[in-house]
Specification:
The protein is an all-alpha fold and 169 residues long. Helices cover 79% and strands 0% of the residues. The radius of gyration is 19 Å and the shape is elongated.
Length: 169
Amino acid sequence: MTVLSAAKRKWLLSLHILFSAIMLGTAFTFLILSLTAAATGDEGVLNACYRAMLILASSSVRASTIGTVVTGIALSLLTRWGLFRFYWIIAKEVLTVLSIALGPFGMYFWSLKAVRLTETYGLAALHDPAFAANRFALMTGIILQIASLAAMFLLSVFKPWGQRTKQGD
């Protein structure tokens, strides 16, 4: 197993934290834009909120997710942590799969659908059951994304549950 020097590990960890912070910040931006869209009666604001979410989902969400996953895997493989040696890392891996499903995929498709509906129907979209279902899915996805990212940050800090026992121990 290749082990990184302390300086290289710190640089890689810094990149991982930076990409993770961008993911969390973008998720909170989605929350703010979603709440703004829910509270407005202005068609332009409504459409702008969903357009901004779509742009973020196409750029920042994808880039930060890829960066976080790549640096996280590199940290696991190039340090003593490993991919499956500790329960807290396995929990982060499960949450990562959830975050990938919600972020680059869910946020993109829900935002795209909201943009299409608001462009087609304007404020009348607010009374469309398909729009209401999409808005609910988007808000649920945003909340789950924030919760899963926050849980990953906490798991990284507290590292609960310890190391898995090896077969035969």
